[in-house]
Amino acid sequence: MTVTPFRISVSEDVLRDLRARLTRTLFTEPSDSAYWAAGTDPGWLRELVAHWADGFDWAKAEDQLNAFPQFRADIAGRAVHFVHLRARRGTAPDGPAPLPLILSHGWPSSFVELLPLAERLADPGAHGGDPADAVDVVIPSLPGFLYSDLPDGPFTRRGVAETWHTLMTEVLGYERYGAFGGDIGGGVTQWLGALHPEAVVGVHITSAVVSADFDAQPPTARESAYLEALDAYDREDGGYSEIMCTRPDTLAAALRDSPAGLLAWISDKYRDWSDCGGDLETRWDRHTLLTVVTLYWATGTIGSSFRQYYDYHRHNRAVSPVRVPAAVTLSHEPAYADYPRSLAERVFHDLRHWSTPGRGGHFMAYEEPDQVAGELRTFFRPLR
């Protein structure tokens, strides 16, 4: 399995074409007078597209990303892109070897979302923490996202977990490691704990789990109330998911051809799911938001990022029991309002850490990196 160093480099031809498309964008009128009521606000979009075309500093973004050590590994004939940030223990090198942690993102995300957290985990001394808590951090890009190839077969969270385990043990040579993730990455993290308890010392997620198998133990009254509320929320929020599950190529054709459309599609979910109180830019500064969208544009991977939706029916809906130590730091978003701990305990048989901080949404690792870093240290410290 070959591993090669990797640097992001977007050609000037791609950037020139991007700017030209942005300057020719055709905008729509709002469907509702209320700000963002019918999706991405056309006025906000117009302003940000103008900034993207003439104001956004991609060279700066590229330099910032390339400051992190990146690689691509060949695993079963498919390329996996990842960041590998080694622990920085400063003047406290003694003690046990740093614990490796693999961090997994979701959709419409990227490895960029996890970089602030990675810095705090690998070098806690530089962020007011104890250098002895430093860990090795691995952040892979999900298959079909940016610089990672799609799998040779269906995209399932269980399949991604097997690829991640190969990356950690056979490619990087770690015998034991911890895992963290949210959204899709949370599902991958659960499967890592279920499938490889001999190597995974613990799992930590920020998105709730719901077992689809209630045959052995029917849901309690509180669990039923939550599941009904979740169904109601999904009916309001699930339009994006339905089209990506059923007609991903139709949508991808539009988003691959229009950078403004791509920005609108991604920004809509960032605003809805972040703990931003309706003001997206309180959580996602323009530079970071445009960095992520530029990466999707330059790699042409928005369509392949839909694959896990199209293949969703192939997932094993009943999550296998996870018997390794587990932690949940529940994100503060509508989908998980009033989520009962008992649902997590159906899957996690050794749930040692349960936290509902009340801040930090779907992208908690980016929105609240200090909070998440602290919870990860608390949970994983005794598991080294």
Automatic annotation (TrEMBL):
Q: Enumerate the Gene Ontology biological process terms.
A: epoxide metabolic process
Q: Its domain of life?
A: Bacteria
Location of the active site: D183, Y309, H362
One GO molecular-function annotation for this sequence?
epoxide hydrolase activity
> Domain named Epoxide hydrolase N-terminal: which ranges?
3-113
One Pfam family, short name please?
EHN
Keyword Hydrolase present in the record's keywords: the answer is yes
Q: Is the keyword Hydrolase assigned to this protein?
A: yes
Matches recorded under InterPro entries: AB_hydrolase_fold (IPR029058), Epox_hydrolase-like (IPR000639), Epoxide_hydro_N (IPR010497), Epoxide_hydrolase (IPR016292)
Q: Which keywords has UniProt assigned to this entry?
A: Aromatic hydrocarbons catabolism, Hydrolase
Family of this protein: Belongs to the peptidase S33 family.
Name of the protein in question: Epoxide hydrolase
* Organism this protein belongs to: Streptomyces showdoensis
